[in-house]
Design brief:
The structure holds 2 protein chains of 2 kinds. By secondary structure, chain A is α/β, with parallel strands linked by helices. Chain A folds into 2 domains: 2-242, P-loop containing nucleotide triphosphate hydrolases (Rossmann fold, 3-Layer(aba) Sandwich), CATH 3.40.50.300; 251-338, ACT domain (Alpha-Beta Plaits), CATH 3.30.70. Chain A has helices at 44-51, 74-81, 99-109, 114-127, 143-155, 173-190, 201-207, 225-230, 235-242, 251-259, 279-287, 317-329; strands at residues 2-13, 16-28, 33-38, 59-64, 67-68, 84-87, 161-165, 193-198, 210-215, 218-224, 264-271, 290-301, 304-314, 333-338. Chain A has a 6-stranded mixed β-sheet, sandwiched between helices. A 4-stranded antiparallel β-sheet of chain A has the order 2-1-4-5. Chain A is elongated, with a radius of gyration of 24 Å. The two termini of chain A are 44 Å apart. The N and C termini of chain B lie far apart (52 Å). Chain B has helices at 8-16, 22-57, 66-81, 84-90, 92-99, 105-129, 133-141, 146-179, 188-197, 202-231. Chain B is mostly helical. Chain B is elongated and about 75 Å long. The chains are: A alpha/beta, B mainly alpha.
Amino acid sequence: MIELRGIHKIYQKKDTEIHALEGVDLRIEKGDIFGVIGYSGAGKSTLVRLVNYLEEPTEGSVIVDGAHLADQPPSALRQIKKQIGMIFQHFNLLESKTIYKNVAMPLILAKKSKKEIHARVSELLAFVGLADKAMNYPSELSGGQKQRVGIARALASNPKILLCDEATSALDPQTTQSILDLLQRVNKEYGITIMLITHEMSVIQKICNKVAVMEEGKIIEEGSVLDVFGHPKHPTSRNFVQTVVRTDVPSQIQEQLKQQGVHALTKLEMVGEHATQPILATLIQRFGLTVSAVFTNMTEIQDTTLAIWYLDIEGKEEDKANALAYLEAQGVRIEEVSI
Amino acid sequence: MFNPAVTLQEFLGEIINTNVTLQEFLEEIVNTLYMVGMSLLIGTIFGSILGVVIVVTRRGGILAVPFVYFILNFLINIVRSVPFIILMVAMIPFTRSIVGTSIGTNAAIVPLIIFITPFIARLVENSLLEVGPGIIEAAESMGATPFQIIWYFILPEAFGSLILSLATATISLIGASAMAGVVGGGGIGNIAIIYGYQRYDTFAMFATIFILIIIVQLIQSTGNTVARLIRRR
């Protein structure tokens, strides 16, 4: 649906060049909710603006739904933009127009009939739960309501793709949750592919199925959300994951273990139904091992459970090896960790 | 000037003693409104177009043509550098070639238009630049054409501010139109000059000032009210 190939973006500022993106490749499939996370200045805002050509790449190509954007004449590019909705951190609503007019704007630009506009706007306002606010002005709405208007407006022209530029960063946690629920409905009910950028890992955790982590203009890690949350490879990804899921043993517990003479732990990572298997009982009863769970964490991601267990396993080496082989065969990811 | 020996009755008598007739006074008010109205109308049309053009053609604008911007910007600055009273006198040959005379109300309208157009262009420019880049970005993301961006996004968002700019321009025009009286331009300024200044008619002078104050207050408060209604903030 969206493909970025070998993207470089360089801004000329007086005498200096700012390399905002340095060789980015990205593929977003139809139906994805694809999250891009990074600290401010990582280049994610530039990245999302490439998809609807608000920014043009210095080098590389952007392909949306089969069309190379660089080859399009201005009028064709405007038609493609109508297929791509966008919502913004600060909503960017027209303060001088009613909610109704704001949502109707893409249809007015497309010169649709009054009747058609009325039907579509009423449907969308009902979808986002603001049917009673049609004649209000944006200044009379809360932040969450404004973002709902933004979403309704972005959907007006029946787009295939929705771009979200830090869409929840100006909202409180509760409102964020309701906007994320709405985005999930947009994805499911309308089948719209969503690309969102954020600096909050909790946003990725709640609705994305895939994630790319950006740093200094590059994508440093990419994959399914479960994979990246379960075993982030890059230190920056690990930092982001840590903000919502503890995947390592707290230092205080590590200190206590060292005093008890424990220097190695076995880390188990289980996803979905594996997370609810009677692992401890199996290890103890079937393999005759002494097992203590030092630290565990279970998190819900994308309607499945990610469980991380740190075990201190004692017993015969042979039994332990058999036990771990058995668990691996059950789909449990195993890692020996020294502390 | 101030003589304490004069009694209050004598003092008041001296002030009210005037040679201006009410009819003359009303006629000149009408002349002022005519001059201001005409030059405001034409100046607003040209000034708004000019203002929009210098906003969209500037570097980073939605139809960036920096060369056009540079030329227009330069021209606006040139006209704005000349005080109205000098502009008016310097333009006499030009005015005469257009209107056929350099005296009278119609003749005053020509320099007033030349004076107010670049001023309105600057005010419009300021108002339009107040519209945040986010609004324009949203418009572009919807696939709006440059004309649609101006017509459906920038102008409506700037409308309240444009009304205030218009009030400022009108008040400025009233001041300039009064100056037109110096070179026989007619209007209320004429009364202040001919009666108030040249004939020491204190009443005529203060009556003129009083009327000007009333008109300016009316325009400003109307502008404020309309702008507030439009802005909805």
